[in-house]
Design a protein that fits this description.
The chain has 264 residues and is mainly α. The chain is built from 10 helices and no strands.
């Protein structure tokens, strides 16, 4: 892993793996599914995805407009990281941004659970377990903004690694589903999301570009374009599009999960 210190990656992957295993074991012995279905009795599956998409979009657009950087620069999606929007003391609407991340993480968590319960196959359930841990990591990005440097990158990596695996597994679940509950086109979109996740996490970035990205040395001028920033934003945009379009697809087809208490 070139982008982040190796120890951060190990910690993040370990938390993601342990959390997933705990959820899977708990679900196996206790059968959490009847409990997990309760939120969808009041709010149907598609609305969770739509609400999360709206909150995330607002969270990124409004703070980016209000942003003024350390050198008085305006925010640019081409050379400013997502995390900079939540940097307290720099970003004017950092608190608003971080609160939106916390809320949207919880809502997306419920949405991922709903996707798993609707698909009802092993790949979908595994994607749901991983998605839950990923969303918890996403929410904690709002709890630990860039000001808490080490903690911030650990929870960010939990989100990015978990999000990558969840999307891949959901895409596989869609393809192998004999009932064809979801159109196979969403697996294609999921593959595109995966590509950007993989590029973000594993691309061999230039060390100088990373120094500029982290902006730790203010003597380095921020270039007009940073590849890592591009991959980061494309990852975020594509996963929002994937989740949002899926929610609209469910809404049009009036899809909700099976609310029967009888589960297998």
């Amino acid at each position: 892993m070139v982008l982040y210190e190796f120890s951060w990656g190990i910690i993040a992957i370990s938390i993601l793996a342990v959390g997933t295993i705990i959820l899977a074991i708990t679900d196996y012995f206790i059968n959490l599914r009847p409990i997990l279905k309760k939120p969808f009795k009041k709010i149907a599956l598609p609305y969770w995805g739509i609400i999360a998409t709206i909150i995330l979009t607002i969270a990124f657009v409004i703070p980016s407009i209000a942003y003024t950087g350390k050198k008085g620069e305006r925010y640019s999606f081409l050379n400013h990281s997502i995390s900079m929007l939540g940097e307290v003391g720099v970003s004017e609407l950092a608190i608003f941004f971080n609160i939106c991340l916390i809320i949207s993480g919880v809502i997306t968590l419920v949405y991922y659970i709903g996707l798993a319960l609707y698909m009802e196959n092993k790949f979908a359930y595994l994607a749901g377990y991983i998605g839950v841990i990923s969303c918890i990591g996403g929410s904690f990005v709002g709890v630990f903004p860039m000001n808490y440097y080490d903690a911030h990158w650990v929870v960010s990596l939990i989100f990015f690694f978990g999000g990558m695996l969840a999307v891949v597994l959901f895409s596989i679940a869609i393809l192998i589903d004999k009932e064809k509950k979801i159109h196979w086109g969403f697996s294609i979109i999921g593959a595109i999301v995966f590509v950007f996740f993989a590029l973000l996490l594993f691309y061999p970035y230039d060390v100088t570009d990373l120094a500029r990205y982290y902006n730790q040395n203010l003597q380095l001028e921020r270039p007009a374009f940073l590849l890592h920033t591009f991959f980061e934003w494309m990852t975020l945009i594509t996963i929002i599009i994937w989740g949002g379009l899926l929610a609209i697809y469910f809404l049009i087809r009036k899809i909700n999960i099976n609310l029967s208490e009888n589960t297998t």
